[in-house]
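User: Hey, quick favor. My workstation is busy. Could you predict this chain's structure for me?
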Amino acid sequence: MSTPQLTAVAEDYIKVVWSLQEWSNEPVITKDLAERLGVGTSTVSETVRRLVSQGLLDHPRYGAISLTEEGRRCALGMVRRHRLLETFLVNELGYTWDEVHDEAEVLEHAVSDLLVDRIDARLGHPTRDPHGDPIPARDLSLDSPDAYTLAVMEEGTTGTVSRISDEDPQVLRYFADLEFGLDAHVHIVKRNDAVGVIELEWSPVHQPQETRTLTLGMLAADAVWIVATNK
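Assistant: No problem, here it is.
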């Protein structure tokens, strides 16, 4: 696997387009990229036009922005770098899961493919990062879990936590304080959509016989993805 030489800006754009589509079926528009990248819409439009000319993006007039096959390949290479770096920072350097995203954002543009492969080998070829996001293999194949957010789950659903979004570090810190993390077993006891809360019973991985209770607002519930076990 070899990643073509792209500018850091191009790498950021294609990775963001891929990330916006990874867990959502919503079309990606200029405004989405502007918000995620913290730049103006005119800057996004100009950069997208350049990436279209380079064969990395498709953007029909008045249509959604999407990756070409080459763009998807390059994006997956960047995602692999980012998620392996996050895993290395947590497992080997003692970072907490709310600290690693910004560090990996910087490092992913600097490391070589050789270093990425050696990090992968050192870590034992992990299949997911500290937040549960799947890590593309060296051949860029990707095995994503059949997971959905707690916010859309019905009462009575049971399952295991497969992913917690890293979009909000405060939410990650909140869950870390509760010891609520990946592979925790959860049961949705009650939804109260009128006030926007979900009541859970859950068991931490290190104490599977213990049952704890937790009430989450929809913002936090939307950050937690589970694989249901009682479909």
